[in-house]
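Students often ask what a holo structure prediction actually looks like on paper. The answer is less mysterious than it sounds. You provide the chain, you provide the ligand, and the output is a string of discrete structure tokens encoding the 3D arrangement of the protein together with glutathione.
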Amino acid sequence: MADALTLHEDPRSGNCYKIRLTAALLGLPLETRAYDIMQGETRTPQFLARINPHGRIPVLQIGDGEHGGDAPRFLPESNAACWYLAHGSALIPDERFAQADMLRWMFFEQYSHEPNIATMRFWLRFVGEARLSEEQRAQMMAKRMAGAAALDLMNRHLGTRAFLCGAMVSLADIALFAYTHVADEGGFRLGDYPALVDWCDRVRALPGFVPMA
Ligand SMILES: N[C@@H](CCC(=O)N[C@@H](CS)C(=O)NCC(=O)O)C(=O)O
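The corresponding structure tokens follow.
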């Protein structure tokens, strides 16, 4: 019997959505357990001791330890969790260069896209501009510029191909769709990037697609 899968998440988080979307596209059953990060629910001693010592969601729990099964294992980091779910599926290309190219976009997502676009979305949509610290305010211009540069790079790349790694959808598309399609909530204008708008529509049209909460 396959291990039970549980996603420890805050449903508003794009990093968590990546994992829900991967499971949905693959038809994998996924239980969820919700936390409110605004209330510090991932920073409790219990969460740090059992779920993730890094104090963050998402965490994919593999197994539940019930019926004499192995103890549950916990996998933080959204892209690692997507990889775990998609192992052996068509969402990970077989060919060596294609697989490395997919990883290249997933690393790009974590280094050049998410820290700018997701952080701006978190600050503007959930914290609120009036409540930002001086330090956060000081970082806004740089994040706006770096986020726009990331969207521009993707837009140019997607001008000549259906998905980030070519004709076939891969985990790279799931990882980058999560915060790109809600970039407007972080003060970016997705409408300025026509190839990104079309690509978002192609992702939404995939069989099994589920929207973000
Ligand atoms: N690199 C991590 C980022 C995880 C992350 O930043 N999680 C945020 C929500 S999206 C969080 O848990 N914040 C709550 C906190 O730091 O207390 C991933 O891709 O999963």
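The pocket of glutathione is lined by residues 13, 15, 37, 42-43, 55-58, 77-79, 110 (CB under 6 Å).
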